[in-house]
Amino acid sequence: MKNYEEISKECEYIDTNIDPPPPIITIQNHTIATSGNFITLTGLPKSRKTTFAVFGIASALTGKSFFDIKVNLNEDEKIVLFDTEQSIYDFSRQMKMLKKAINKPSLPDNFKAYLFRKYDPVDVLNSMYYVIKNNLPKIIIIDNLTELVINPNDVSESKSVIQFLKRITAEYNIVVICLLHLNKNNLMSTGNLGSLADRGAQSVLKVTLDKDLGVSTLEPILLRSSAHFEPISITYNNDLKKYEQTKTEKKDTRKKFVLSSLTSVDHINRLNVIFLNVKEWTYGEFVEEIKKIYGVGTNISKQQIIPYLLGNNYLINNKGSYSKNDKI
Fold first, then answer.
1. Which of 8, 114, 152, 260 has CA 20 to 30 A from 81's CA?
2. pLDDT tens-place string over residues 6-36
């Protein structure tokens, strides 16, 4: 039986001044991550999320800035990469790209990389915890978070993974960078796992690929600790055999919200997240939750999404209090 008196004492707030933690990851001098937090880096497959992550590792290992990305890591601190989906050949190519970026013939001792492709999610999670506990890294990268669950739409399984992230960041005061796929049909994070990850993250970043130009762009979606930075675009120079920063096209690349593109499962996943710890919301509170979880503005929330959810019996409106219809 758990000692709830001890837990309560541990969690009780002590009224004292707490200095702001120094940033571990910055982009254009904007704070992206501090110790004890996780961030998400989202994008469609092959959009170059991993490429941006590799240059983040390179910054940590060299102390230099790559494409306006700066990762602060002392020489005696460690950084660990956990890959869950690449083949051994592609993983090896990624390590070669990292060695080229840091201009070293071999990887430094304070960097470790693991490929868990062939193992089930529960074994990967336990192995990751073992590595973290025994190596005490300052930063870890998980590529890809989706592979840590069997079903990203399962609320309980997804919540367990997010709780794992909260646990390791709290216990070991580390920064976790989570790479996460977007759905192709609506460009939203995959399932309940994606919704919960974005909701708990200190920062949510997105990578998009312009296939015609061969340009990948990193942009902020949500920064809890700073103002937004300007989008960063990179392209691969085939002549020089390296990535280069290029001008970001000043055009609205946001996909227009189309309510009909969302399936019943999409709506249920998002409502499960909104009502995960709360049974009822007032109208104003519910609008704000819809805006965060659906990634839309006030007008779309009020004029499209809420009327649709009510009209299709996803919601129950009881004198201005909104609750989820558990019969759906």
1. 152
2. 889 888 888 888 888 899 999 999 999 999 9
